[in-house]
Amino acid sequence: MDFKIVVWDFDGVIFDSMHLKCAGYQRLFGDVSAQAWQAFEQYHYSSGGISRGEKIDYFYRHILGTPLDAHQVDALVLEFGKIIAKELFSKSHLNTEVLGFIQAHYQYYPFHVASAALHTELQLLCEFLEITSYFKSIEGSPPAKVKVVARLIEQHAYVPEQMVLIGDSHNDYLCARENGIAFLGYNNPALKTLIKSAGRVGYIESFKAFNLQDCAAFFANQ
């Protein structure tokens, strides 16, 4: 099976800033109990593909039990962006293996980025990293990633069966499934369990062995 369109997750695949964002959340939340912070830290690392607004809301609503209104969440999202801005803009966080693959193939396939990162920040970051030219579109949140991909399919009249989403989280897998496109996990061994229970799902150990022209070897049910 080959694919004509690739949708890339950003953080955890092309770029690795999960640890920086974790530290940013810790500064944002301030002096909370160790138990509350540990619960959020676990949630953060297991919830790739979810926007920072959703994560902040989850922390206050489900961990602290003190829900915030939408305006309060939006204000904290802006504050969080300021906290991480200086550390985030660094080319050292680029995944060189993935970037090398993208640079070698972007002229032959439509590549798109669909991320849960804040859209305006994502656009600026990709420009800073000098990778914008490799993608036909770079879209962040809002809206949620599942809607970003749905809109992508509609705007370009893509055939879902010809598309694959490459991501590092279970939420990326759910996004792909809801939009009827294939999914390839990467950089998260826990995703290998999906291969045993779902069709058109596979796992990439290394992009050095990955070939878009023939992806059959990456799918358990092909």
From TrEMBL:
Please state what class of enzyme this protein is. hydrolase
The protein's annotated pathway: Organic acid metabolism; glycolate biosynthesis; glycolate from 2-phosphoglycolate: step 1/1
Record field: transmembrane = none
Quickly give the catalysed reaction.
Answer: 2-phosphoglycolate + H2O = glycolate + phosphate
Q: Which Gene3D superfamilies match?
A: HAD superfamily/HAD-like, Putative phosphatase, domain 2
Q: Does the keyword Membrane apply?
A: no
GO MF terms here are: hydrolase activity
**Record's InterPro entries?**
HAD-like_hydrolase_sf, HAD-like_sf, HAD_2, HAD_sf, PGP-like_dom2
Q: Does the keyword Hydrolase apply?
A: yes
Q: Which UniProt keywords apply?
A: Hydrolase
Its Enzyme Commission number(s) read 3.1.3.18
The record ties this protein, via SUPFAM superfamilies, to: HAD-like
Cite the Pfam families for this sequence.
HAD_2 (PF13419)
Q: Which family does it belong to?
A: Belongs to the HAD-like hydrolase superfamily. CbbY/CbbZ/Gph/YieH family.
Instruction: Output this protein's name.
Output: phosphoglycolate phosphatase
Q: Which organism is it from?
A: Helicobacter baculiformis
